[in-house]
Design brief:
Blueprint lengths: L8 E4 L3 H9 L6 E4 L16 E2 L8 H11 L6 H20 L6 E2 L2 E2 L1 E2 L9 E2 L5 H9 L2 H4 L3 E3 L5
Parallel strand pairs: 1-2, 2-8
Antiparallel strand pairs: 3-7, 4-5, 6-7
Amino acid sequence: MSSFRNTDILIIGSGLSGLSAALMLPDNLKITLITKTTLDECSTSWAQGGIASVLSNDDKFDIHIEDTLTNGHGLNNRDVVEKIIKNGPSMINWLVNQKIKFSNKNRKLDLTLEGGHSKRRIVHAKDQTGKIIHDSLDKIEEIKKILQLKKTSK
C-alpha cells in the first residue's frame, strides 16, 4: 500500500535552484523538498568559480548577452539568455541578503574575470563559491517549515 502526501509545492533537488525556490516561496504554502541523498550532496557544492552578473558601471547587459551567445556557439536560446542575465543583479542581491559571504574588495563585491567573459563580472566566494552558498542556504530547516524527504533514491 502506498502513502500519499498533500503538498502545495513539490521541489525536486536540494541544489541552489531548489533551496532558493523553497526560501522564496510564501510561508503559507505547504512545501515539500525531496532529494536523492542528503541536502548537501548536490552539484552546487562542487561549483568553484562563481556567478556571472552585470554589477559594475563598466559592464552592460548587452555585452554580457553577446559574450554568452558567442560562447554558446548558437546552442543557447537568446530569449532565455536575456531573461537570465537581466535578472542576474537582483538574484545576486537576494543571495547577499541571505548573508552569503562573497569575496569583497574595498567593501564591494570582488568581481573577477573568467574565460568567456569580456568584463569583470564573476561574483565569487574564494574558490568555494558553490559550497559556501549551499552551506548558507541549507540552513533552510532553521528558517522555514518545509517537509524534507531525504535519501529517496534506492
